[in-house]
Amino acid sequence: LVSGCVSELLENGxxxxxxxxxxxxxxxxxHPINVMVISLLLGRALGMKSVELHDLGVAAxxxxxxxLKLPPNLRQVTPSxxxxxxxxxxxxxxxxxxxxxxMGFPDTVLTAVARHxxxxxxxxxxxxxxxxDLGRASQVLALVNRYDxxxxxxxxxxxxxxxxxxxxxxxxxxSKFDSVVLGAFIRMMGxxxxxxxxxxxxxxxxxxxxxxxxxxxRPKVIVHDSRIxxxxxxxxxxxxxxxxxxRRSLKPAQLPRDALDYLSPRQRICxxxxxxxxxxxxxxxx
Length: 286
Fold this sequence. Notes:
Blueprint: H1 2-12, E1 15-19, H2 27-45, H3 50-62, H4 83-102, H5 107-114, H6 136-151, H7 162-172, H8 179-189, E2 197-200, E3 205-212, E4 220-223, E5 235-237, E6 246-250, H9 257-263, E7 271-275, H10 281-284
Antiparallel strand pairs: 1-3, 1-7, 2-3, 2-6, 3-4, 4-5
Helix pairs in contact: 1-2, 1-3, 2-3, 2-6, 3-5, 3-6, 4-5, 5-6
């Protein structure tokens, strides 16, 4: 799986991050898949080579394997956790490293897994390492892991939209992440990452379907149009319609009921990538 994704990434040139329909795969498998996909895209944007990307992808897939040793109620951090429960939760990092060792993965994978909760300001765990002690793969994994958990928490009620998650990371948490990695992440995900609910300048509602990092303000969106069945909802490439843009980001609860039912915002955000297709001269000038 990882080798195939790395090969496709390196062969494709520019890639687009896109939203997958809900129901793709088991819920418990979606987090490592999301983390792998976004980490590989971010690693490539940071100039990582094939071997580095492969090890990063493997680390992303197995970083939480140690949680299988924990009871279900301790697999995610919750505000009600007492210190003893929090300490036990943190043991999943060591268990994940032990799993990686049993599988015979190289030290680069072990290190990335061991440090995927470490922060550059020293506030992470389990070793409270800081910037100089963290490798690039660990920095990527820590950021992407946090982003996906904000969008896809254990309790869906606490979920942030992708746009909100990106805003919170930049406004409140940026001291925890490497500035180069965070800057590349924001450029790659765009202002409105896939899954964001938006209102266009013509007042129509839409959900962002895919983002090309070279044109972050002009994503492809699925537009609410009551005249068309939602199964046939049009996908509009804002790059080809220069007069139409995004006015603002919305929470799903801010949508009118008909738009909410039509766009069906995903309870869980699922990502993959595809080859970027640049608009031709005719489309670009439309």
